[in-house]
Design brief:
heterodimer, A: 93 residues, alpha+beta, Ubiquitin-like (UB roll), 5-stranded mixed sheet, 5 strands, B: 390 residues, alpha/beta, Rossmann fold, Oxidized Rhodanese, domain 1, 8-stranded mixed sheet, 5-stranded parallel sheet, 16 helices, 34% helix
Chain lengths: 93, 390
């Protein structure tokens, strides 16, 4: 089972879980599996026309899937998938 | 891996007092006399004198960075003190710039502090950046993040980046000649409202300390030309798990600002880019409201009014007015707990979330529902001064 790491801002949509294990053969399948379990995540990860949002990056281990085969990238059981959204916290400006 | 971006400045000489002060640096081969002179000659601009800016400026000042620019327009308030360690209780109400400059001068009188009491904007950024070698970004909003990034790319200055949310942080070095920029990582900002801000989401006080010190470390490494800077790497910090992970970043050849055929060749309107029209749109203006005095009157008179509190359970523990608690996020699935025939007033902390709740309930068919204007903060200000504010 590949492990998907959920970042803090999105944990409110996964019953506060930090990571979720999914059986899947590609990154896209793993994300679909995740959304099947936690449908509220969908609008945070995908646009209405089904594209991954530009402020959400998906990494397979330490590689950005944009530079692999995107959602078609194949995965192994020991792989770690990370969802890395942009965060802006700091000082008020 | 990326080569080191060295800040090239003519070296500055050190007085005997400075030599004594920096002796623990001078006896290290990685710094030494030459490195300390580079630090003294360096000019670093910190955007924001808040959570990240506090440790960043304190350490850079102590380390002997000769010229420290600070951009901030804010005033110290009590809620800052839990993490913004450059400011003290006695500074509440003072300008952050004045408060920060006092502490920095007290730590290191050899510093040249250059305060900019302004909101960084497309109109002033290039001019302010012109006098600095490295920019350290400690802001809390997307428009300024993109502005700082683009201005760094356009002026060819490294952007030492840090960002925090609750107990998670990110750090990297963007916009060096050979490395990726912030837009290579995130081509577009999230639409407003989809990602909670620190003010909404909270932040663990030590986290800006951790991340700000990492930014200071990267600034000093860039100045010294030592070590392996965080160029092309995004460091993810999870303070709860105390886990650090590193992701690879690539320079995107199609990046609109640093790519091979850039389409952004001057600063743009970043509020528009981030989908923000002027100041944050007041959602509250679209829904019917009730003032706290009216609610107090109705409750005292024993009228049948249902108080709905849409905050989170941990907020309810801080203070409450006895409302029925359904957090905003749970409202759609718990709407059956409400009786649409009764008069309902919804409240949260300041009135923003409850306005969304009222909007949602009205769309669902509730007619007698209003938003408590100003939330429990207004209640504490105008009805019950003993109630704590947060």
């Amino acid at each position: 089972m590949a492990k998907i790491q959920i970042p803090t801002p999105l944990r409110q949509y996964t019953n506060k879980r930090e990571s979720i294990e999914i059986k899947a053969s590609t990154v896209g399948d793993a994300l679909s599996g995740l959304l099947a379990k936690h449908p509220d995540l969908r609008r945070h990860l995908y646009t209405e026309d089904g594209k991954l949002r530009a402020f959400v990056n998906v990494y397979l281990n330490d590689e950005d899937i944009r530079y692999l085969q995107k959602e078609a990238t194949t995965i192994k059981d020991s792989d770690n998938i990370s969802i890395v959204p942009s965060i802006a916290g700091g000082a008020r400006q | 891996m990326a080569t080191i971006t060295e800040v090239k400045r003519e070296t500055a000489t050190l007085s005997n007092d400075e030599i004594l002060r920096y002796s623990r640096h001078l006896i290290m081969p990685e710094v030494g006399m030459e490195g300390q002179q580079k630090l003294k000659a360096a000019r670093v601009l910190c955007i924001g004198a808040g959570g990240l800016g506090s440790p960043l400026a304190l350490y850079l000042g102590a380390a002997g960075v000769g010229t420290l620019g600070l951009v901030d327009f804010d005033v110290v308030d009590y809620t800052n003190l839990q993490r913004q360690i450059i400011h003290t209780t006695a500074d509440v109400g003072r300008k952050k710039l004045d408060s920060a400059a006092d502490k920095l001068k007290a730590i290191n009188p050899f510093l040249n502090i250059r305060p900019f009491e302004t909101r960084l904007s497309s109109e002033n950024a290039l001019e302010i950046f012109a006098d600095f070698d490295i920019i350290a970004d400690g802001t809390d909003n997307f428009p300024t993040r993109y502005l700082v990034n683009d201005a760094c790319v356009l002026t060819g200055k490294p952007n030492v980046y840090g960002s925090i949310f609750r107990f998670e942080g990110q750090a990297s070095v963007f916009a060096t000649k050979e490395g990726p920029c912030y837009r290579c990582l995130y081509p577009e900002p999230p639409p407003p409202g989809l990602v909670p801000s620190c003010a909404e989401g909270g932040v663990l006080g030590i986290l800006p300390g951790l991340v700000g010190v990492m930014q200071a470390t990267e600034v000093i490494k860039l100045i010294l030309g030592q070590g392996e800077p965080l160029i092309g790497r995004l460091l993810l910090i999870d303070a709860l798990a105390m886990k650090f992970r590193e992701l690879k970043l690539r320079k995107n050849p199609d990046c609109p600002v640093c790519g091979t055929h850039p389409t952004v060749t001057r600063l743009i309107d970043y509020n528009q880019f981030c989908g923000i029209r002027g100041e944050e749109a007041p959602v509250t203006s679209n829904v019917p409201e009730m003032q706290v005095e009216e609610l107090k009157q109705k409750l005292d008179a024993g009228e049948d009014i249902f108080v709905l509190d849409v905050r989170e359970p941990h907020e309810y523990q801080i203070c409450n007015i006895g409302g029925h608690l359904i957090p905003l996020g749970d409202l759609p699935k718990r709407v059956h707990e409400l009786d649409s025939s009764r008069e309902i007033v919804a409240h949260c902390r300041s009135g923003v979330r409850s306005a969304k709740a009222v909007d949602f309930l009205r769309q669902t068919g509730f007619r007698k529902v209003r938003n408590l204007a100003g939330g429990i903060l207004a209640w504490a200000d105008r009805v019950d001064p003993k109630m704590p504010k947060y």
